[in-house]
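Write out this protein's structure.
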Amino acid sequence: MKKFVTLAIILSFLGLVGYKVYQDILSPETASNGPGQRSQAVSVEPVRTETLFHRAEITGTLVAETSFQVAPRVSGRLEKLHVDIGDRVARGEIIAELDSEEFAQEVHMATAELELARAALVESSSELEVARKDLDRSQRLFERGNLSQSELDQAQSVFDVRQSRHDVAQAQVRQRQAALEAARVRLEYATIRARWSGDDPTRRVARRFVDEGDMLQANEPIATIICTRNLKAVISVIERDFPFVSIGQNAVIKPDAFSDLQLEGTIVRLAPLLEDATRQARAEVLVPNPDGILVPGMFVRVQIELGQRPQATAVPSGALVRRNGSQGVFVADRDTMQAQFVPVRTGLQDGRLVEIIEPELEGYVVTSGRHMLVDGADIAIPEGLGY
């Protein structure tokens, strides 16, 4: 039993020693490639001076440039529906028709009432003309002394009454005329047409909400009509990028559905505020769609150039590494074949390169094998991987 206990203790001790050795090997701070140790194979790239671009890539969704819902202005039963999802419609084309029998009857009734009002106006005009003649005759007799003042006043009173009745008859004609026009408009509203502004002659039906036979209320949607000749990419600009975005800026649109397709767009709208919940501003990018291959709802990536830095000192982004809480790069000394860790302050990043603001760098930086290095480590650069 004592032999087994002794054996277990020995094995545990060996395991601890092996684990400690393994940690020492993997730890970059205690790597075996320090000064005087075996050289670490690395690859290097030169520090370069290039123009760097400040770009933002923002995900967004395509929406129709214009979209509206066709709806009736009056209530009624849907008698005919002439379009369906995906159909092309022309400007002014009939979309649907409501049951128009009741509206047609209103037109007939309004027409009859207008005729009665016009007949009453003719009768009133005749009576007014008689009263005018009587008043003229009475005035002549009064001037000759053949008619008393009271008789003249009575003739004047009759004329005034006839004039008032005539004015009422004229107003009734106008009222009945307006009622007829309103009835005709309601009858016309029973035929629903697709109308829009703009120079595009046709558009497409995106949605249908009703079926023939449905009872519709006024302003209840029948279908959605969209224009896909141009689309809009709706994106959200973060607070950091907002000062660099403006209307009229160019953008590159990459639809996820077409990996090899890139389109040129223009920022046409930018919200003047950041939303409280997200600290982002809505922006809309106009995207041409002449071939009609893009459709609303597609997911896109929008790349916007926010600025550029000419003659910037830059290193490959793969050269950056952290040591003791500081970000820096390993500069390869070609004379001593050692790597010196240099803390740096970075600026613009375009994905491939990173701007180095401080300090001034020159020479070569380690890009591959840097994670195993410590300051002053010996390095070896295989042929073809640098210099």
